[in-house]
Structures
1.
Amino acid sequence: MSEQTARERIVPAEMARRCADAMWQDDCASQAMGMQVEEVAPRYARLSMPVRSDMLNGHANCHGGFIFTLADSSFAFACNWSNRLTVASSGTIEFLAPAREGDVLTATAEERSRAGRTGVYDAAITNQRGDLVALFRGRSYTVPGELIPGLELAES
Amino acid sequence: MSEQTARERIVPAEMARRCADAMWQDDCASQAMGMQVEEVAPRYARLSMPVRSDMLNGHANCHGGFIFTLADSSFAFACNWSNRLTVASSGTIEFLAPAREGDVLTATAEERSRAGRTGVYDAAITNQRGDLVALFRGRSYTVPGELIPGLELAES
Amino acid sequence: MSEQTARERIVPAEMARRCADAMWQDDCASQAMGMQVEEVAPRYARLSMPVRSDMLNGHANCHGGFIFTLADSSFAFACNWSNRLTVASSGTIEFLAPAREGDVLTATAEERSRAGRTGVYDAAITNQRGDLVALFRGRSYTVPGELIPGLELAES
Amino acid sequence: MSEQTARERIVPAEMARRCADAMWQDDCASQAMGMQVEEVAPRYARLSMPVRSDMLNGHANCHGGFIFTLADSSFAFACNWSNRLTVASSGTIEFLAPAREGDVLTATAEERSRAGRTGVYDAAITNQRGDLVALFRGRSYTVPGELIPGLELAES
């Protein structure tokens, strides 16, 4: 084996953290939205986002698209945790309560199913009072490639 | 009738234009995303958005949340055309092809059904080459209230 | 008050049971599919269905429509528990694993949200080995009317 | 080439017809529901189904699951037209109007997108008066295998 193909083996919790760091570094979109990665673990991610004045729509509520964006980011971190490059193939969101300027939204994403190349992830979006603002379900599709070349899960 | 309840009656095409103008004025979110309202008509809206560098995710593609946001805005303009205050109750998006920095996305939303308080709207999102980037379906819910107080449709 | 408007007040668990009994009696569809109501409670229902040979599609798997039908029935029992007439406005299903002839499917539905006239319910569909076969999410809409005239919840 | 690998090449319209015939023959579920294949073509299928008394739910309407089942069958015929074995990965249905006993429902499915292994198909479900009863969107996934071994599309 050449040095180029040397593999580093790490445990799941460490893998989730390193993949999240690698994704975050290049995720201009989530950064520009003011998101924070609050917690990551295998098959799990929790992100927060304060609602700014430039996020309000014509009804003076947080644009539903930005609530979706937060949920979609939490989904991305949850489904890319194992260093297998994974993209969203679709997503559905239920808008349950409006979010206002100054609210801090939290999206908590968890894996519900993963088999072969496809997965299903649920995210709940709550505000700072714990009220449910939206429910999200995303479908993932794993494509060839790694987020961090050479990194893989240690066999348990 | 008092002056407060004076009603102005206009034709549908004019109504769609005036409701879109009223919504756009307060829609900081769509403005901040660099969207343009390209065309509005009864039950129909077409909006465009160039993909900027601050819209890219960790995979160097336009964050799916912003594609959803564009679609959701086109849906909002299509379902609020008649001055009845209408919000999104849910939305589903299929991501079909990635969008890159510099692409100009167009979302074209059309009413598929409206009965009572609820409606279904479809939007197709294409890039500047006409490639289909995503398909969106939104469910709307009409709440009490008007976008422009006192404005209503002329009887045909 | 006249006799016609006499109201009977019962506790939630009893209400869920009586509404389920009333619905089941008239639900020819769920009966013809061989479903069983295994358990009902406020905001919750669990139904089972064996996969028969006349439920197989051209790929020799249980037709996805029948898996949806089981999930949709569990959703109907969960969202009609309180004697307020409630219908499905939409439903989404993720097919995760095939079901075969002789499998016994169980759908477990739970309320995730209810506000005003609308609600969101999730159902998980598993087989007799506990494998996840499908995930369902339904949106409900409450219309005027009662399942059992005159029956209402006792104030707690 | 051995006889086993002999390939027959046919034009698209013929392929759609032969794949539909092969699927229909084994589709006990669609047959038991009283469906009829009205028309098939590449990326397209139209099926009908009369609403029978054993299809009614506890609200005396056609069970939504059976409307989904009809839509799902039309989707299956539309996405398997080219002899590449294709299954549903998910489906979403919007229920717009009730269907009653004696109504004849028609589901018309069309391909909206297909790339690699995945596709998106839309179906509209109408009754005998042309009223829109439901809208369906399905996501397909192509797996290894052929419906009719050895049959392929002639190059155009």
2.
Amino acid sequence: MMTIKGMGPLQEGIRQSGSAPDEVIVEGCIHRIREMGKVIFVVIRTSRSLIQCVLDEGGYQLTGLREDGSLNEGDCVRVTGIKKEEPRAFGGFEVHGRSIEVLSVANALPPVSLNKPKLSSGLDVILDHRPIALRHPQQRAIFKLQEGIVKAFRHYLSANDFTEIHSPKTTSAGAEGGANIFKMDYFGQPACLAQSPQIYKQMMVGVFGRVFEVAPVFRAEKHNTTRHLNEYISMDFEMGYIKGMEDVMDTEAAMLRYMMDYLKENYSQELSLLKVELPVVGEIPVLKFKEAKELLAREYGRRVTGNGDLDPEEEVLLCQYSKEKLGSEFIFITHFPSSRRPFYAMDDPNDPGFAFSFDLLFRGLEITTGGQRIHDYQQQVTKMQEMGLEPSDFEHYLSIHKHGMPPHGGLGLGLERLEMQLLGLNNVRYTSLFPRDVKRITP
Amino acid sequence: MMTIKGMGPLQEGIRQSGSAPDEVIVEGCIHRIREMGKVIFVVIRTSRSLIQCVLDEGGYQLTGLREDGSLNEGDCVRVTGIKKEEPRAFGGFEVHGRSIEVLSVANALPPVSLNKPKLSSGLDVILDHRPIALRHPQQRAIFKLQEGIVKAFRHYLSANDFTEIHSPKTTSAGAEGGANIFKMDYFGQPACLAQSPQIYKQMMVGVFGRVFEVAPVFRAEKHNTTRHLNEYISMDFEMGYIKGMEDVMDTEAAMLRYMMDYLKENYSQELSLLKVELPVVGEIPVLKFKEAKELLAREYGRRVTGNGDLDPEEEVLLCQYSKEKLGSEFIFITHFPSSRRPFYAMDDPNDPGFAFSFDLLFRGLEITTGGQRIHDYQQQVTKMQEMGLEPSDFEHYLSIHKHGMPPHGGLGLGLERLEMQLLGLNNVRYTSLFPRDVKRITP
């Protein structure tokens, strides 16, 4: 019988060996091998960095798995050596290897070239070989940065008295109804996958006042566009005791400001590898939907149609206007037509037919939809009836209004879309680890 | 056109009003009203606490929504008043109200009694009225604490160079196969819900070295027991460059130690409300499966059967033994029979027929399954063939082994089960916000 002892942390693939001063252990995958006469340069891809190791002929010991004693790109190794300053190497240092141990061998050359600065393959090739293509430093930097985006979202909200929740993804009915629902069989009962945590986060406002969730949502949309995924990560929050939807917008703006600072401070390596220009989140301009449509007609000669939404081209133009004329890469559009918003959206009593509802546009794309929700029981019942919904189908949902709900509102922020726009990528599939679209459900 | 300004945080439902020293604003739901002659005591349930407000007849202003000017339990209010020390009140203070504003009214009495110290209703009643029952201070404390468990898990792993990932939940095949898969229709193709992030977290070890995920998993198990849920939150991690499965077990033990300290430091309020006795996570004893079976026969007269697993009663007895004889509420059982473990489990070459696989038992229940995985390509292909699986069905998965995978291992820790055991609850449904079982898919 043995017992378990504590274990020291491994910091980014390199740690002190403890046997000699300056002696370190580097663990990682061989990214590139370059032989220069009697010296071999072996670049190791560790968890986050590339570390250059130098092996002098006859000056190191090799133990390994291959009978011929060779080293190959893709092999996983443990190098023990002396860390020395070297301004020309990544990170300003290199490791002079005393021993290199092959822990595991690669059996084939990678299907995409991992050790060129840019991954030159097309998106389909990248996605077909996703588990390997993600090993490319730039590809994986996208997801290291994604970690930072989510961390910043949680940090900011936790510090502001929001409680994190986990709502169910298998449900008996879609929160927002409609056709875009994935159906499944639940022990012989019809069920579906949650399109959003909407009804649950509202329920939880009645419990904790302020809540958030970062979790997958599922949309059976048949659009196969560059900005749609059928499964994506939604960063949602919902807050009670608001004075109006402006409180929700304020919170989003402050959260985004914190997020950009957080990324700058903690992910400079990835930001520089991906050549990201972070936006300044100053005061975010706000336009009503009607004003936006008028502006589009006036400034860009767009025909004002009866369509109650913004089309992709209009989103691009509004962002262009905001950036050029208002100095902001973000712009809020508010007061969308009620007819285009869900049953829980609160209508503006001073502007009949329009809802306290907003979108946040960023660099040409909608990344958030949010708004104030109805909190009064009778008002919610009446609105359901007006929309042809049957209140008795919403018994659990309406129980929260019946037993007291504070004025509240919230939003959903699509993680992959936000990051796609931050990084200036042209397809949202780049920012989803294993994207799901109409045609793709593997790997 | 308006612009957005930063907004001050609301701290746990109480904040300075800014108009007078000691004047505060309390926002929350009326938890209890008690009239004592000319004084009304109104207890407000804020986001995390109960705050006692005192209203002296004629000494405060009431603005509100009810025509009769009444206040009712369940109403959401904003109280402005003076904070004064009061040792007999919760938190050691009370607020002497100058004004109380009714923001929203409750239309009915709650279906369960929210303002008694204990919620006396049975589990079925609690679950049938879940959105309201969660408002009870003890019920919601379970989920405030749950937030802390997840935070601690993430903090510890992030600080130890693990990267957080988001793997897809809609997949083309179950990672571990078997019958317990929820099937769905994916645009005319058969698909299923992920039973675990197993194959994805292994793929991501090849990318980041160490990864973790906290996300829902879906198990179509027909067991309707007190410890099964059909959708639950799995806290998973997977780590590369290990020397053996002991590294994984060490990491879990250290993480749990951190978690208990973190809860003690940040959730004392909930721990005390729920009367939780946190376990001491010292050196966790380790028993091999065979040794455990022998011990059960020797100490408790259990018949040793050919069954390659531990049954619930055996888990209870092993924990009892561990606590009484070894001084630990946790115990690792290792080296389970290979035949009972999945295709990716690495076998112990020195103990044929047994795998480098472990369970962690805690207070009578298995809360974790983990182990070392096969990293060598040929070894994985051979094992699949021996198990009657077709390697070509696992092309994406095997690509990670083919192109180089470090020795690695990991585990999954069931959030709801861990918390159920921490809190000494007798049903895992208590620790799931909106539990899903064979019969329940609402609310």
